[in-house]
Write a structure and sequence with these properties.
The longest helix is centred in the first third of the chain and has 24 residues, at 3-26. With 169 residues, the protein is of the alpha+beta class. The protein contains five helices and five strands. Strands 1-2-3-4-5 form a five-stranded antiparallel sheet. Residues 1-25 form the signal peptide. Pfam families: Mtb12_C. It comes from Nocardia terrae. This is Low molecular weight antigen MTB12-like C-terminal domain-containing protein.
């Protein structure tokens, strides 16, 4: 298989995953009249804090954190606090960074929605191999007092690059 066929397969697979992530975020079991998640933007946070969850970050904060997390120049040890699942695989951040570098991927967080249960979703623009950005939803979980990219999402991204991790089994 030549390089272009592989890139094409990765691009098609990524569109399927991005679509699935987007659709899963659209589905809701909420009853009419139930409280809806609050949204935050890059300019303000509009979410009441409950329990012991960390403050809801702005889109700009999450975007900056995500960019550091996939930056090949950032040592893996500094990335561990950004990603769920590192206790099962401390190399998980490096694996994700390798995938992003190999596939020339970009992710830009554009909006944050606090789901109020220790999870939030980040609307993002996701592109592979210099292609057109597609809408994506990146899930985050509150863990150890910090917001971390959800392990399942990381595992889906790794699978696009035919990679795996002990954290994903």
């Amino acid at each position: 298989m030549n390089k272009y066929q592989k890139i094409g397969r990765v691009a098609i697979a990524s569109l399927a995953v991005v679509s699935a992530l987007g659709l899963s975020a659209c589905g809701s079991g909420d009853k009419p009249g139930a409280a809806k998640p609050s949204k935050t933007t890059t300019s303000k946070t509009v979410a009441a804090q409950s329990n012991n969850y960390p403050p809801v970050p702005t889109a700009a904060d999450l975007n900056a954190k995500f960019q550091v997390g996939v930056d090949p120049n950032t040592p893996n040890e500094q990335k561990l606090e950004f990603f769920q699942g590192v206790s099962a695989d401390p190399t998980l951040p490096q694996r994700l960074t390798d995938f992003y570098k190999q596939s020339n991927a970009t992710v830009t967080v554009t909006n944050v929605t606090d789901l109020g249960n220790g999870t939030l979703t980040a609307d993002a623009e996701f592109a592979l191999s210099g292609g057109q950005p597609q809408k994506a939803v990146v899930p985050f979980v509150a863990e150890d007092g910090k917001w971390k990219v959800q392990k399942d999402w990381i595992c889906q991204m790794l699978s696009l690059g035919n990679q795996t991790s002990p954290a994903c089994s």
